Write a sequence for this structure.
DNA sequence: TTGTATGCGTTATCAA
DNA sequence: TTGATAACGCATACAA
């Protein structure tokens, strides 16, 4: 009772061969009903569980997906839940590893999972990552790999991502429509596509509305709140400071907000603010922060579906790129057209 | 080059036996340096990686820890990072599964990981869980299992948790010291020990300060914000409503805050509020919310250390209970003694 | 110092 | 319908 029961134990007890037991367990057609029932009964009694290890070794698949994410913040955790949902249903188990935005950690994790532990990967690259050899090794092994959310053009693989250009566009368009003239953008790390895409959307909106872009209003900083805070403080020290800021994450928006409040400026009257991710916190702050909403759960599900698809069919899907659309959640921090009197409060 | 290289490939190429290769790879003492070098060189060239699957099957250990958590909110994600940190260093890989506070999901996840995939578990029970058979099955298999954060007295296992009684005490003591007289508590689901412990701390503080507990001020509701909001609305409808609320999570505190604001009451002047978890958001809200801080990262690390300890030594640690101490982060929502004039603002 | 044989738990192939 | 055997990739007891 102590050691887990194996097929051998059943065979020995029933005085039949292991192959027969194996067949009976898997409901093969060519097995005597009497034998099968005996096997089923005994395996029930011993609470037999097939060893996934032995199966994996034999079939050369583990039915496990390695998921590598830079962190587990609100949005990522939601995406992972989406992945989990689909994977579980398809009979896969998920191994989630956080790289903590560290390139080294990302490599270690990948390598570890690569040692015949997983059938493939669903990854989102860390903000430090500039070299993709560890991911390319996955592909050399002909393992399926789907890249999601933080994708990179240096990686040829099926991808699922948000339409970040559209996200940047929506935010900027909205600010312009609200009458803001000097709109700054706090973009993220330069090596990340999401930074550049959201920046591109920003530029696209300016162009559409014939606003001349100003290089001094385009700032790069890391995703963390403190960095955004400091950058905004510097920004507001300028003689002619911007009258609106678009940050490409909500964390950054919060940093910016703290700086704005410190300077005694009011939102949306003196300065407009739009973030990105639509974290629950944005609706709770005062003023509430407008933010670009992304369908995180759906995005995770899509990534997992794409993975399964790639797993089952042999076709090359590496040029597929599923792009989900963002929406803009307009809140107090940027809305001054419909309630101009708000500045009186 | 396509299929991963095995020990056999090396043996064949070098015309030696697999056992020699195996020995050479593991730096055994009784192997000819010349042979070893040849093996090492070739394995390097073929970028040989031992199969963890085969190893696991043979040695009956996977060097993988199954981590089951109810969710991946801020605190949990931090704890998981702590677990990850220690596990990685000890040569273990972590499989994180979210139960989404669902009993069924928790069972499925446990069962899946149990099929010879992991060496043991580090778990935190879902709020729905009232029966622990699935966890007891782990113990029947003599697998190490550490319970953390959400522990249950129905489970005999090494445990790591916060001193929740102390947390409840700190919050309540603080409110009393600030002059609040009718302090309500929004406790969580009744079946969770953390609910009861924090409630116990609340009662302990009342007793210490000779305040008579009032059953009408003790309310149970789920952890989610909406529920806390509705409960608070009801609470404030009473003729003689409480002048302070202690919620056992920050999510609940936010729900309560929304209700308080809706009623037009001011914090801390009209009503005091203290939450639990010290999520970053608490310092950003207006007013900022006082909250009980728990050393989440440390707690995760401790759980993993305990797991490793249990793994390595054969001693029975099932009566061990590591208890970490909380601190109180005092913020605007409850502090009225040191700045009474704040009610004028 | 090296090789042979065996086992880990399972399935597949082939023969009976 | 069933059984013997080999194989998956590795480690190890034992023999050479």
């Amino acid at each position: 009772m102590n050691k887990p029961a194996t097929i051998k134990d059943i065979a020995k007890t029933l005085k039949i061969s292991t192959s027969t037991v194996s067949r009976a367990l898997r409901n093969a057609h060519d097995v005597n009903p009497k034998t099968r029932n005996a096997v089923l009964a005994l395996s029930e009694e011993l609470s037999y569980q097939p060893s996934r290890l032995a199966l994996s070794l034999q079939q050369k698949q583990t039915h496990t997906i390695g998921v590598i994410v830079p962190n587990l913040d609100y949005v990522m955790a939601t995406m992972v839940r989406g992945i989990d949902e689909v994977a579980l249903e398809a009979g896969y188990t998920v191994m989630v590893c956080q790289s903590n935005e560290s390139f080294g950690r990302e490599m270690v994790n990948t390598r570890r999972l690569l040692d015949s532990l997983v059938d493939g990967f669903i990854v989102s690259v860390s903000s430090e990552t500039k070299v993709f050899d560890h991911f390319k090794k996955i592909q050399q092994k002909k393992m399926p790999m789907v890249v999601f959310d933080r994708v990179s053009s240096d990686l040829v693989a099926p991808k699922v991502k948000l339409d970040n250009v559209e996200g940047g566009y929506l935010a900027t368009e909205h600010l312009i429509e609200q009458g803001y003239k000097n709109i700054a953008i706090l973009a993220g790390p330069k090596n990340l596509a999401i930074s550049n895409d959201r920046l591109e959307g920003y530029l696209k909106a300016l162009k559409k509305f014939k606003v001349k872009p100003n290089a001094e209003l385009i700032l790069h900083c890391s995703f963390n709140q403190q960095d955004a805070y400091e950058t905004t403080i510097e920004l507001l020290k300028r003689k002619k400071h911007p009258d609106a800021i678009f940050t490409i994450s909500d964390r950054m928006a919060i940093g910016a907000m703290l700086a704005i409040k410190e300077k005694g400026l009011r939102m949306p009257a003196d300065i407009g603010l739009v973030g990105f991710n639509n974290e629950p916190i944005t609706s709770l702050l005062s003023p509430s922060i407008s933010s670009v909403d992304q369908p995180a759960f759906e995005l995770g599900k899509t990534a997992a579906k794409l993975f399964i698809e790639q797993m089952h069919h042999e076709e090359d899907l590496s040029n597929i790129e599923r792009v989900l659309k963002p929406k803009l959640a307009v809140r107090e921090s940027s809305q001054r057209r419909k309630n101009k009197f708000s500045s009186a409060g």
